[in-house]
Write a structure and sequence with these properties.
heterodimer; A: about 350 residues; mainly alpha; MetI-like fold; 2 domains; two-stranded antiparallel sheet; two-stranded antiparallel ribbon; globular; B: about 425 residues; alpha/beta; D-Maltodextrin-Binding Protein, domain 2; ten-stranded mixed sheet
């Protein structure tokens, strides 16, 4: 009698539990799992994306073959997008994380007055539409825009940079200062082809325009990440700082020996989120540059959009999506290694 | 009691999640580097006017070139609805035309009639989504042969071109007078004029040229080059193409021509309107724009200067397509025909925004808009903006190449080699 009662109660709990998660599961199924497997399936088919999917024909691994192993325009575009996205992520993630941590420590500081005001100000860019921000920055970055005018005010000899239309890479430009450019570079650099791009192209660094987009993104996302750090900072026990102060540790020592180690799991979280977000970057390219100039702001996500909707190659777009997933997955694994197991929460 | 609370909570959860999952519609702006010839500015579609009961609803999907054009087309369609009370047609200008059309077609619920750009036509044919007109196109021989050819595949004339545009040289009369420059008619004269009109210290330049395949191809044809040879093989890596590319990028490298962003403009038309440049290579869409936004600029229109191989320009055209699985095929074709027969096209093109694709309307239109005759004459020596399916990969490679050369990062030889192999890949050669 007693056991059946318990069993009945468990069943009731089971029903209640599933009815709670049911709707969420259903939505995940419809909006996440089905599209995911559809994408995977489509990456093995020739589908223009114009006629119904049932009209597509299976072509096996041809897209992967073209994107990874054949020396052609598709592969050079894919690796160009990969290169652009890689430089973008490598530039954005560390700076954004460091800046967010700095902002959080400042906003958390006991000495700071008007905390609420600063927290709101730092966070504000994150809740503004990326399209609106993109349009405003387009205007700031114009040749005769505010940015150039401001620099000119302080440095009258400054020659306007056209931020939105400068395809020269930062590393190329730095090498140029030492007299190394495409005409003077040794032929092993300019003529060795690795994955459909020359070594010289690989070492370009982000273009000036890409760097402008990177500055914008760092500015917008640092606020979000700051919020995460702020929450984590509340959990660092105050007595630790007091004990350290008694032992004569300076603020700098306290930051490196208490704050950073205590925030390790949070830093791991922020870097992971940052990596995933940067590898999927799309909005800024779509609104501000359309992948230009000279293709230096084509990100992998933008290439997927272009292949699917401009070139009518939805099958190939799907294959790039799958490859992007693998890239992000591997990047996250590597990064987990770097941060070590202690970072796990 | 408990169950009711559960139910309420569940319902609440569903609603919250559903709203959270709602797609965020990305707003678009005119991308500065689009290859599509008209600088497409977007305007939100307006709700259509009163629906008469029992009438069949017809949706016409297109993009918006300008507010003036939208309003005009809506007026033409309102006239159609009055003349055909059994139908209720409406125009929808989609800010994301490619995505809207593609999802509608792939999802099996296509619009009743839609714009088909000549560049996109081969892709649509390859995917077999366009309907064959059951009774043919009305009076097909009246259309300019090159425009008819742009929408003919496998011997079938699929859809009537609604209008067309060609490229010409637009020049600033007062700047020409001040510099004492005559209207250039050859490449050499254009170069000399551009140099003479450039005053970098004053921030004015001879020419605004976008790094854009749609404009460079006119120079390619003027040099006697081709994209695809008569044998159907990609053939762009030629001395003629090199001459055209060197000439075009040479203007940019010399500094007598600039890209519009260098003079703080979104596109060539804006740079011209602000009098930062004395010349642009643009289509007839620039005329209403200049009259509206820069009424004080006194401009002239001339044929593009002839190259080593003579005159050439590009023609851009759009037709009204009907999808294969249209819900009301008969109604769709009635709309298409009444928009493109002699009377319907006259109504549309008499507003001066677009040029008639029917030869029979030529004379009346020229009388109405004598200053635009140059554009219309371009039809005789124009090349269509149309290639094989999936060719946007190649035009993108050209855009990229021009930008790289202008920035000193590539040579014309290497760019042409890349474009050639990209074309071969797309054509499967």
């Amino acid at each position: 009698m007693a056991t059946t009662h318990i069993a009945g109660q468990r069943r009731q709990e089971l029903v209640a539990g599933y009815s709670f998660v049911g709707p969420a599961l259903l939505i995940l199924l419809i909006f996440l799992f089905i599209p995911m497997f559809f994408t995977l399936w489509m990456s093995f088919r020739d589908w223009g994306g114009i006629s119904p999917p049932a009209n597509s024909t299976p072509i096996g691994l041809e897209w992967y073959q073209k994107l990874l192993f054949e020396d052609n325009i598709r592969r050079s575009e894919f690796f160009l997008a990969f290169k652009n996205t890689f430089y973008y992520a490598v530039g954005v993630v560390p700076i954004q994380t460091a800046l967010a941590l700095l902002l959080a420590v400042i906003a958390n500081s006991a000495l700071l007055r008007f905390k609420g005001f600063f927290r709101t100000t730092f966070y504000f860019p994150s809740i503004t539409s990326s399209v609106a921000i993109g349009l405003i920055f387009l205007w700031i970055y114009q040749s005769g825009g505010i940015l150039n005018q401001t620099i000119k005010f302080f440095f009258p000899d400054y020659k306007n940079i056209s931020w939105m239309n400068d395809p020269s890479g930062l590393i190329h430009n730095t090498l140029g200062l030492f007299g190394l450019n495409i005409r003077t570079a040794p032929s092993w650099l300019t003529e060795t082809n690795v994955l459909s791009l020359t070594l010289w192209q690989w070492i370009s660094g982000p273009s000036v325009t890409m760097s402008a987009l990177m500055m914008l993104v760092i500015w917008t996302t640092a606020g979000t990440m700051m919020l995460v750090f702020l929450a984590a900072l509340q959990d660092v026990p105050r007595p630790m700082y007091e004990a350290a102060a008694v032992d004569g540790a300076t603020g700098w020592d306290q930051f490196w020996n208490i704050t950073v180690p205590m925030l390790r799991p949070t830093i791991f979280f922020v870097v992971t989120l940052g990596l995933i977000g940067t590898f999927q970057v799309f909005d800024q390219m779509y609104v501000m540059t359309s992948g230009g100039p000279a293709g230096t702001t084509i990100s992998l996500a933008y290439l997927i959009y272009r292949a699917g909707f401009k070139d009518a190659q939805m099958g190939m777009a799907s294959a790039i999506s799958v490859l992007l997933f693998i890239i992000i997955f591997v990047a996250t694994l590597i990064q987990r290694r770097v941060f070590g197991d202690r970072a796990q929460t | 009691m408990n169950k009711r609370i559960f139910f309420l909570l569940t319902a609440l959860l569903v609603v919250t999640l559903a709203s959270a999952c709602a797609p965020v519609s990305p707003a678009t702006t005119a991308p500065a580097a689009t290859t599509a010839p008209p600088a497409a500015t977007t305007a939100p579609p307006e709700p259509t006017a009163a629906t008469s009961a029992g009438a069949t609803n017809l949706q016409l999907l297109g993009w918006s070139a300008s507010d003036v054009e939208n309003e005009t087309l809506k007026q033409v369609i309102a006239d159609f609805n009055t003349a055909h009370p059994q139908y209720n047609a409406s125009f929808e200008a989609s800010p994301n035309y490619d995505q809207s059309l593609q999802t509608a077609l792939a999802g099996g619920a296509p619009p009743d009639v839609f714009y088909v750009d000549s560049l996109k036509f081969p892709d649509l044919i390859k995917n077999d989504v366009l309907a064959v007109p059951p009774d043919g196109i009305q009076n097909p021989d009246d259309f300019y042969p090159s425009l008819r050819a742009a929408f003919t595949a496998n011997g079938t004339f699929y859809c009537p071109p609604k209008d067309f545009s060609t490229l010409a040289l637009i020049y600033n009369k007062s700047m020409f007078e001040k510099a004492g420059v005559e209207v250039p008619t050859t490449w050499d004269e254009l170069k000399a004029a551009a140099e003479k009109l450039t005053d970098a210290s004053a921030g004015t330049y001879g020419l605004s040229l976008s790094a854009d395949a749609a404009r460079w191809l006119a120079f390619l044809y003027q040099a006697g080059g081709v994209v695809v040879g008569p044998d159907g093989k990609m053939n762009i890596d030629t001395p003629e193409a090199k001459a055209a590319l060197d000439y075009y990028t040479g203007l940019l490298v010399d500094g007598s021509a600039v890209t519009p962003d260098k003079v703080d403009s979104g596109w060539n038309g804006e740079a011209f309107g602000k009098a930062k440049v004395a010349m642009v290579v643009e289509g007839n869409w620039i005329v209403p724009y200049l009259k509206n936004d820069f009424p004080d600029v006194d401009f002239g229109i001339a044929e593009l200067p002839a190259g080593p191989a003579g005159k050439a320009t590009m023609a851009f055209t759009v037709c009204y397509g009907v999808p294969k699985n249209a819900a009301h095929p008969e109604a769709s074709w009635t709309l298409v025909n009444s928009l493109t027969d002699e009377a319907g096209m006259k109504k549309w093109t008499d507003l001066g925004l677009a040029m008639p694709t029917r030869k029979s309307l030529r004379e009346g239109w020229v009388k109405e808009f004598p200053e635009l005759t140059v554009f219309l004459d371009g039809a005789d020596y124009s090349h269509p903006w149309q290639f094989a399916p999936g060719f946007t990969v190649v035009t993108d490679a050209i855009n990229k190449g021009i930008q790289e050369i202008a920035a000193g990062q590539a040579t014309s030889e290497s760019v042409l080699k890349t474009v050639q192999s990209a074309g071969q890949d797309v054509l499967g050669q």
